[in-house]
Amino acid sequence: MRAARRQVRHSRTRHLTLARAEQAAGQAFGFAEEGVAAATVGLGRMAMTATGAALAVALAATLAWAF
Question: Is pLDDT above 80 for 28?
Fold first, then answer.
């Protein structure tokens, strides 16, 4: 009888361990996915800022040359 109880406990423990491992892996994948998305947005913002700065410099140079 005790052997059967131990086996049930062991399988329950194994199930919980696997469930926790799956949850941790899912969270890690989610964090990595969010990091990639944030990096992409950050690079896009940097490119827009650089483009805006270049346009502002070009406009200022044009106005300085014209007047």
Answer: no
